[in-house]
Specification:
globular; 179 residues
Length: 179
């Protein structure tokens, strides 16, 4: 007679689930404003910012929206790919006459923070200031892209590589911490 005490519980499960579901939905609804309480400047600015960034759709609409379409053009995937290609083109072959001219810069932004990868370049070749400005802009837009899409990652820390000079070309070497 194992489980005899649970005979009626199967019939109660749908009711229990429905109760839990309604309670969960009620917890997600906006708080009603209390009578006599006026919103502070901070809260009114915060709600104005939310209104400006969140699309307004009817609650009954069963539409699955592609978040990529809601992004400004400057933060779209195609724009990011074009910026990445421009950066890679600026780096070129990363030729240098000494390892002292080889540099590393974080590229991209992981949703948890930190760079997605590192880019090895030569300060001897091309315009380092222009390159670093483009990398900074790219990193910022990738970070915004991640936030707007609500992306997550493994949060693993990508170790910063050291640099080596191989036949006149800067390349990633072992992580700098190990040297």
């Amino acid at each position: 007679m194992r489980g005899a005490g649970f005979k009626g519980s199967a019939a109660k499960r749908p009711l229990l689930f429905a109760t839990f579901f309604v309670a969960a939905l009620a917890g997600c609804s906006p708080k009603p404003q209390q009578a006599g309480v006026t919103p502070t400047a901070d809260s009114s600015q915060a709600s104005a910012a939310q209104v400006a960034t969140e699309p307004q759709t009817p609650a009954s609409a069963e539409v699955v929206m592609n978040k990529e379409q809601q992004l400004p053009a400057a933060v779209g995937r195609n724009e990011l790919q074009a910026m990445y290609q421009d950066i890679v083109q600026l780096v070129g072959q990363a030729k240098a006459s000494s390892v002292a001219q080889c540099r590393v810069v974080g590229l991209g932004a992981k949703p948890c923070g930190g760079p997605q990868s590192y880019l090895v370049y030569s300060a001897e070749q091309g315009n380092e200031t222009e390159l670093l400005a483009k990398v900074a802009r790219y990193n910022l837009l990738v970070q915004q892209h991640n936030q707007q899409l609500g992306l997550i990652s493994d949060c693993a820390v990508v170790p910063k590589p050291g640099v080596v000079l191989v036949e006149g070309v800067c390349q990633a070497g072992p992580p700098g911490d190990l040297m």
